[in-house]
Amino acid sequence: xxxxxxxxxxxxxxxxxxxxxxxxxLTPSGAVAAFAVGALTYASGTLGFTLVLLAFFVPSVGxxxxxxxxxxxxxxxxxxxxxxxxxxxxxxGVATVCAVAWAFTHDxxxxxxFAGAYAAATADTWAxxxxxxxxxxxxxxxxxxxxxxxxxxxxxLPGTLAEFAGAFWIGVMxxxxxxxxxxxxSFDFGWSFSQAPTVVTAPVLALFAVPVAGIAGATxxxxxxxxxxxxxxxxxxxxxxxxxxxxCGNRTRRVRGLPGISNDVVNxxxxxxxxxVAAGILNALFG
Length: 287
What we know:
The chain is mostly helical. The protein is built from eight helices and five strands; from the N terminus they run H-H-H-H-H-E-E-H-H-E-E-E-H. The protein has a three-stranded antiparallel sheet, with no helix packed on it. Strands 1-2 form a two-stranded antiparallel ribbon. Strand 3 and strand 4 form a beta hairpin. The longest helix has about 40 residues, at about 30-65. It is globular, with a radius of gyration of 19 Å.
């Protein structure tokens, strides 16, 4: 990690965070967190890793504004609207750690983990943003029983298709980003030529490993959302929700899930799973 790259990354990330805050895509705390994520990402993988970060962030912001009126009606879900620091770190924290680890070790497993984490975050985000607009009521990923629109653990056909699309989108952009990070950084991926020519094998493998990791992470997100994540009930409104207090101002009681397991925690675990799957595929083949 070169100090020059950190300085360039800080300037670039500061500009993007400011624009996103002014556009009300980020809260003030979210802008600070996005600045840190962006600066460290550029410092670690320069343009290659930054391209992957933007491939997640820009479409996700755009999709969040699609059908905004309908999404405002979903008052029972945990968070919507501008992203705060916890949301930014839940989606980008694991990837940032992987990027920094790659910068210091040059181990390709960290590069794959970086892309896999963002593939999971993108797949989950696209599934949520599109799935909440589906005409048919979502069904639980575990029981297939109908669940309220927007509540965690519910799936729809449009949302599932969007999940696959998001995972493959980052699969493509992640492949480009990994190759760029390798070329611009002039790092040795650590494979002998007889094992795997980097310029051929790395892109082909990333095109497979990263989307698979994204789908795996997003699927885990839905499963955890239907089991471990807190589901609460507002007795005053007689409504199931994910918040305490409810939008009406009354306290809610936990009816399912583990204490403290919020949507942000689930997102963090899902991105960690995406990172682990992508790195694991690479390790299984060339470890």
